[in-house]
Design goal:
Largest sheet: 3 strands, antiparallel
Radius of gyration: 24 Å
Shape: globular
Distance between the termini: 33 Å
Strand order of the largest sheet: 4-5-6
């Protein structure tokens, strides 16, 4: 069964080398460059490029129409794909399944825990990136967050702009479209996991305030909504992956539709319960991911830590040991007045890689 087109595009989009270079430094708070404003020659050229990018994305006809009407959306969707992929690879860097693009198509057709995480992190990246694109001026139909109840709704006058998660979630509801048929267990599980990702972003929204006044007094205080770094969202989703709930389906006679049900938790009098809104859900036990398959490239050749991860990653096959010399800066001293002088040192480093 095919996943929703927009999330499939996010899950399957390849990662450019330039983005991969920023692998460990990615936080989700990087500065986004606003696009040229309307009325300029650059804006006209950008518009044509935007339409072409929308046509190249793996979207449904309705989604492509929405994309073409919103300059900047195609680039934002690509940014979301890169953000979700990098975060997934970071969170699973020590696991047998390391979020490799190889085998991703087969994985998305199953109901594994890993599939649940992919849906959640993809929808979270979409919500996060769209909200930040609004505050960065990359989308024409939205701007800074204007949530009521803040001390200074005119925060933009002081040079700050709240992340517009309200617009982001509303747009996503329209863009992803209605849920698939209620008789489809996979459809309900995918929709549930998608919502878990968006909910995780909402849970990380903070109210940030800044004082304006003589000598830093709070005569005037500006407050705005700000998303937490996406790394924190990724960590929260990884914890939910580890506690994911295996579900089955049953017909709710009162509502006349299919519902997700999970084994009752310890201490609960009920035999089965509906999963909680924050639970990731899955239907099938995952493969071991030890050997190459249609779901992953396996773990042969993977670097590991002899003390921490080689035993699990190498699946009992053992590991190879290799030594190499690594140069690094050492004995650094600050010289008058304005530079640091270092020596070059060399040390032996031992690498451990899983046997084939």
């Amino acid at each position: 069964m095919r996943p929703p087109p927009a999330l499939a595009a996010l899950c399957l989009l390849a990662l450019p080398a330039a983005a991969a270079a920023a692998y460990f430094g990615l936080t989700g708070r990087e500065v986004l460059t606003p696009f040229p404003g309307p009325g300029t020659a650059a804006a006209s050229a950008q518009s044509g490029a935007h339409l072409r990018q929308c046509d190249l994305l793996q979207l449904s006809r309705r989604q492509k129409q929405l994309c073409r009407r919103e300059p900047g959306l195609a680039e934002t969707l690509q940014d979301a794909a890169h953000l979700s992929l990098l975060e997934c690879q970071f969170q699973f860097r020590h696991e047998r399944w390391n979020c490799s693009l190889e085998g991703r198509t087969g994985l998305l057709k199953r109901g594994f825990k890993e599939t649940a995480f992919l849906y959640a992190v993809s929808s979270a990246a979409l919500a996060h990136t769209l909200a930040r694109a609004c505050s960065a001026g990359r989308l024409e139909r939205c701007t800074c967050d204007d949530s009521p109840g803040l001390q200074s709704p005119q925060a933009w006058q002081w040079g700050v702009c709240g992340d517009n998660l309200k617009y982001s979630t509303k747009f996503l509801s329209q863009f992803l479209g209605p849920k698939r048929g209620s008789k489809d267990l996979r459809a309900r599980a995918d929709a549930h996991n998608t919502h878990v990702g968006i909910k995780a972003v909402k849970s990380g929204v903070r109210t940030t305030c800044k004082c304006h006044g003589v000598s830093g007094s709070c005569a005037v205080r500006t407050c705005w909504k700000q998303l937490s770094p996406f790394r924190e969202t990724g960590q929260a989703l990884k914890l939910r992956y580890e506690a994911a709930v295996k579900v089955s389906s049953a017909t709710n006679e009162a509502l006349g539709r299919l519902e997700l049900w999970a084994p009752a938790r310890p201490g609960s009098p009920a035999k089965e319960l509906a999963p909680r809104p924050g639970d990731l859900v899955y239907m099938e036990d995952s493969p071991s991911f030890c050997r190459p398959s249609k779901y992953s490239p396996g773990t042969a050749g993977r670097a590991c830590s002899r003390e921490a991860s080689c035993s699990s990653l190498c699946c009992g096959r053992g590991y190879d040991t290799q030594s190499r010399l690594v140069a690094f800066s050492c004995h650094c001293r600050v010289q008058w007045c304005c530079y640091v002088e270092c020596q070059q040192c060399v040390q032996e480093e031992t690498l451990y890689t899983c046997k084939h």
